[in-house]
Amino acid sequence: xxxxxxxxxxxxxxxxxxxxxxxxxxxxxxxxxxxxxxxxxxxxxxxxxxxxxxxxxxxxxxxxxxxxxxxxxxxxxxxxxxxxxxxxxxxxxxxxxxxxxxxxxxxxxxxxxxxxxxxxxxxxxxxxxxxxxxxxxxxxxxxxxxxxxxxxxxxxxxxxxxxxxxxxxxxxxxxxxxxxxxxxxxxxxxxxxxxxxxxxxxxxxxxxxxxxxxxxxxxxxxxxxxxxxxxxxxxxxxxxxxxxxxxxxxxxxxxxx
Length: 257
Fold this sequence. Notes:
The protein is 81% helix and 0% strand. The protein is mostly helical. The chain has one domain.
């Protein structure tokens, strides 16, 4: 991996982390397109999420660290993900992260579900959606987030659409998804760093730093753009994108990989 590779991956992470299109899927696909294959790449993809986390902390730090009710609800949503993540961490990293067919299937099916949901329930959650999240709802959203252990599902999509299904309006659930990402991604990145830090060389650390910085800058911009987008639009364009991306990569994979 070169510094240019790390910058490209940082851009991909920053753009896709908080959009409902699966950052993990995009990082894995981008890595394959760049011809990158190593155990370090898996750790790199997980660790540069810390840059995206920092973007949320900078933008929502006051609410995240001073609003006790928000803190409790975020931690309530984090609990099921943490428990299931500890149980399945090894299996996820060993088997799921390399299964491109599974990733593309998750992208495709997720896109179809998003479109159907918006067509059937979209107007209701826009007009009548709740502007607050209870503890029970936070826990259920955390369970939904656990579906994102499968690369291609998208943590953002799982939490956002889990919240929409509970009757929460778009802006409220999108912002809660941002906040819930902080402990979730910090735990995932921290666990991987603890387990693999001894194997990182000085060059690896430099690549991680570059990816971290780029993902932070790009993620901050992506968060603001998404919040502006959902004020006037639904998530159907993201569903269409997921389907097109999955089919396009599948065709290229058959020809090139």
